[in-house]
Amino acid sequence: SSLKVIALVSGGKDSFYSILHCLAAGHTVVALANLYPPIPADGLEHEDLNSFMYQTVGHSVIPLYEKATGIPLFRQEIRGDAVNSERDYAAPAVTLGLDETESLVPLIARIKNAHPEVNAISTGAILSTYQRTRVESVALRLGLTPLSFLWQYPLLPPYSQSALLHDMRAVGQDSRIIKVASGGLDETFLWQNVADSKTISRLGKAIARFCDNGDGAVLGEGGEFETLAIDGPDVLWKKKIEIEPDRVILGGGGEAIWEGKAARLVKKEGERVGLKSLRIPYLWDDEFEEVLASLETLPEPTLPNTAAEPIVPAGASHLKITNMHYKGDWSITLSAQVYEGDLPLDPPAQLASILHSAVNTLAGDDLDTTDILHTTLILRNMSDFSAVNEIYGPFFTSPNPPSRVTVACGDRLPSGVDVMLSVIAAKKLPILKTYRELGEQPGGLHVQSRSYWAPANIGPYSQAIATPLIPESDSVSCSTELVFVAGQIPLIPGSMEVYTEHGFKGQALLALQHLFRIGRAMHVGRWVAGVAFMSTCPDQETYQRVQTAQTAWTAIHTAPPLPEHDDDAASDAEEAQVTDPWDMLNIRGPLVFDDTTNREPLPDPSMIIADENTAIPPCFVVQVAQLPRDAPIEWSALGLAKGTLTSEMVFHQPRVFYTDVKDSKVRFIALEVTDDWNEVPTLIRTGVWDHCTLYAGPDFPDNWGSLKGVSYVPCQAVWGHGGKKVRGVLVGR
């Protein structure tokens, strides 16, 4: 639906280009918002404050944007400093000093008073989590939807670092370089149009000499340069800005600032390009598009005997494993937590009771909600999703709350139970203390802005949370991290609408692409196993969907390796391969800028030692009553990042997949439970599980007793390797 947007503008190229994407999405920009540096005591305006959060150079030109665009401009003086310098930002609970981020609050409040219809805010964040999370924090507190349409732009097709600059040139946006600070750039770059092909070429040559490939330097993401937008397409720019040059200020460390004078608005003449030339990043990654094409040609599946059986409605689970509390070597698992009080409660009240109890239990182990890594939330009815989220959210106030999988299991939940929650929390081990002391705090990914990259959160949870694994002994170190990824459904990232093209095949693959994009962002090189939740569907479609999900999983794991470079990625730059005096003076040798953005390999063959039987992690499909947004599929997986892994598959009656981590005592196991295999209960009773998730079908054995360290999902049906229906599967460590 159309949003009424506040566009946060710094004067730079990205904030104005983001406005064009807001307009292309059908949104209306109601106001421009800008923060400017305070006037110093000497009464003289200085162009640069070197704010961590805001671009301030060129701020004296900002007032002209109101008449240049015809959009009301609201401004606010920046107060405070970067008190909170953490990468991920949370609203200050106790004021230790005013953080500059909070200057946004009164500014947006003023705009909301003047334009009560506003419900979104746009930012030009590309790769800066620091900037994005701060805008998100303020926006969400004030009831606004954050929009970051340029987020991860270089990692989207065509995977070109300079694609954004070429796209700006295509629509006629004119943004001038007004500050250079690093990356081998000198004052000769000042007042050049950053989207001009010659400038892009020169930037590339300088970046090749001084910066790493893929770090966004050619876009100025590391502060290499800053820009000032002075013109663009008529759909936004009604007039253009002209500025006379005044002087160049040279600072230390190679810093140079261009200052102008007599800035004025000028009437635009001639026809200019508009939104028709605005490139919207393609939805599909190359390898996923190829898999989609192959799925479209799949023949109708031949049903195996075990899969052809109709799915009959299953009653409540008979397993007695609710409200379990287990301490493993590494984690604490609160599995299948349910409300067991005498008074009947509605679903939100049930969850509130469960969460209060969980908080008290964790407190007994000196833990709190910030130590929780992942949760599994099971509802009886998905219609309770929004109401339950309102209770769930306030319990998790850290910038990176735990990742989460949410499904509805209908009448498979025990009688009287409408909500069931399982929690995995990390114990306070010495390795985690050392990890934090080294500045390598277990990371998370919590993107709440709409973008073209992957869906924003539709609940209070992170896309992914990573935590280090325990070394084998005190004498060795283990670099591998375990990554919990939230369940992914097939939403179109830019609109957050459910994707419907190509039917279930397109939906299964898009949700899987979201899983992989998040995995790459977290440096995942190997999945322990993939689990595809499938909502109830007609019996004749069930096995087709099982086959589609497992075929997609196999195909993406056997796709050709990602190219490390692409000579055609930025063909426009070839036009500008000229030698100028700056090149001859500053470049020694035939340095070539590789414009291709190198994406993380997933799977990463250098990370895993595997034979042909274990080259592809197992993929299980489980059927539940309903999924969020009435989606037909939701992907979930545990990821492993960094380090070296080995894997093997043991050929008992079912397959058992083992993944071992070098220099760690951890073993990951994915196994199937069939009718005629009795070794799993013995394995469970040994207590070797630190944590795992059990996906149990209606005929899962009921004589397993207490399953320690196990989170539990009661399913309508479960399929293992090759689409064979099984009683259940377990995935964990």
UniProtKB/TrEMBL annotation:
Pfam families, sorted: Diphthami_syn_2 (PF01902), Ribonuc_L-PSP (PF01042)
Enzyme class (EC, first level): ligase
Span of domain Diphthamide synthase: 4-244
Entries under Gene3D superfamilies matching the protein: HUPs, putative n-type atp pyrophosphatase, domain 2, RutC-like
UniProt-listed Enzyme Commission number(s): 6.3.1.14
CDD domains: AANH_PF0828-like, eu_AANH_C_1, eu_AANH_C_2
Keyword field: Hydrolase
Gene Ontology biological process terms in this record: protein histidyl modification to diphthamide
Superkingdom, natural source: Eukaryota
InterPro entries per record: Diphthami_syn_dom (IPR002761), DPH6/MJ0570 (IPR030662), Rossmann-like_a/b/a_fold (IPR014729), RutC-like_sf (IPR035959), YjgF/YER057c/UK114 (IPR006175)
GO molecular function: diphthine-ammonia ligase activity; hydrolase activity
Keyword Cytoplasm in record: no
Catalytic activity: diphthine-[translation elongation factor 2] + NH4(+) + ATP = diphthamide-[translation elongation factor 2] + AMP + diphosphate + H(+)
Entries under NCBIfam families matching the protein: MJ0570_dom
Protein name: Diphthine--ammonia ligase
Upper taxonomic lineage: Eukaryota, Fungi, Dikarya, Ascomycota, Pezizomycotina
